[in-house]
Request: fold
Amino acid sequence: MKVIYWTSTALVSLMLAWSTYSYFFSKETIEGVKALGFPTFFRIELAVLKIIAVVLLLAPQVPIQVKEWAYAGVGLFFVTAIVAHAAHKDPIWINLVNVFFIGLLIVSNIYLHKIIAQ
Reply:
């Protein structure tokens, strides 16, 4: 159970960390966020919140209630991305990647609760 939890959590966290890096340093991503209609402050806000979420998801000493808020926030990131990319008529594979990560996020949350229940 722990392997599934840590693998799914690590994959989601790596994606969030990569996304944060690209929000700050990738000209293509920065221009892409602008093309979606979001202002610069929103891109920076998302990057900071994603790093906070990574810390909250990975740190074992974080209370479960705080982790639940992190899961909700990360889920909202992915849903917002799906809506924005669909409205922008981006390729479907972008939304399939987001759906995949929503699935991993759900698996992580389910297995966190199974570990706690033991």
Remarks:
- The two ends are 10 Å apart (CA to CA).
